[in-house]
Design brief:
about 230 residues, alpha+beta, Jelly Rolls, Arc Repressor Mutant, subunit A, 2 domains, four-stranded antiparallel β-sheet, 11 strands, about 20% strand, globular, transcription regulation
């Protein structure tokens, strides 16, 4: 997105001086807990979610290495969401004062954090619109494309075949569907020649058709970053 200077790289490295390791299913932060720490996700995949009044779970976002986690801890005393490991993962915790100092010393990094949060906000808006206005097939198709695209951003070798790493229940919690309904939609996408499932891997056979079915918009494209302040070093 933006080429950082060596000074900026060193400044960001200060956020990753400590490590914590979590197994799949472990909770990094629980909704309504007292907050304080933020995290950089170094390895693995995690999800953010909220618990609804009926006891069901709504997954808000999936997060990948390089993402900032628990950014809402900057402005709330109690966590508004739960963060859970979807795979064995490594996170780097840091405190609010560390982040505050970084933003003062490096305004371009502060601006990039704003960019990141706006991408997340728009992606959540897309998810909200999908839950209220699109078909079950479109919602499931959008999750498949989003997961593959995020993986490809980290590893350019990833093509049409990838390990999804989500259960049908987790897809359902992200799309407002039951696991049974998710399974039905996956079979429909297979029957229509858009995807194939083989040996634990997902293959996108007809990505243009899948994107049309999902009404998918890649929110990491079409960014205008010409306004970013200059680096201080």
């Amino acid at each position: 997105m933006v080429a950082l200077t060596e000074t900026e790289h060193r400044a960001l490295a200060r956020l990753e001086e400590r490590e914590r390791h979590f197994r799949r299913g472990a909770t990094l932060q629980r909704e309504n807990d007292r907050t304080g720490e933020l995290f950089v996700l170094r390895k693995g995949v995690v999800m953010s979610s909220v618990l609804l009044d009926d006891g069901s779970r709504q997954i808000l976002r999936f997060h990948f290495p390089g993402d900032l986690l628990a950014v809402s801890s900057l402005i709330y005393n109690e966590a508004p969401e739960t963060i859970t490991a979807l795979s064995d993962c490594t996170v780097c915790p840091f405190e609010r004062p560390t982040f505050s100092a970084l933003m003062i010393e490096h305004p371009r990094i502060a601006a990039l954090v704003l960019v990141y949060n706006q991408i997340e906000r728009v992606a959540l808006t897309d998810r909200l619109a999908a839950l209220g206005r699109t078909s079950a097939k479109a919602r499931v198709a959008a999750v498949l494309i989003e997961m593959r695209n995020r993986m490809r951003m980290l590893d350019k070798r990833i093509g049409d075949s990838f390990v999804l790493g989500l259960t049908q229940e987790e897809i359902g919690d992200a799309t407002g569907l039951t696991a049974v309904h998710v399974n039905r939609m996956l079979r429909q996408l297979e029957d229509e020649g858009m995807i194939a499932r083989e040996a634990g891997r997902m293959r996108l056979l007809n990505e243009p058709a899948l994107a049309r079915a999902a009404n998918f918009v890649d929110r990491y494209k079409g960014l205008d970053l010409s306004w970013l302040p200059a680096s201080r070093g």
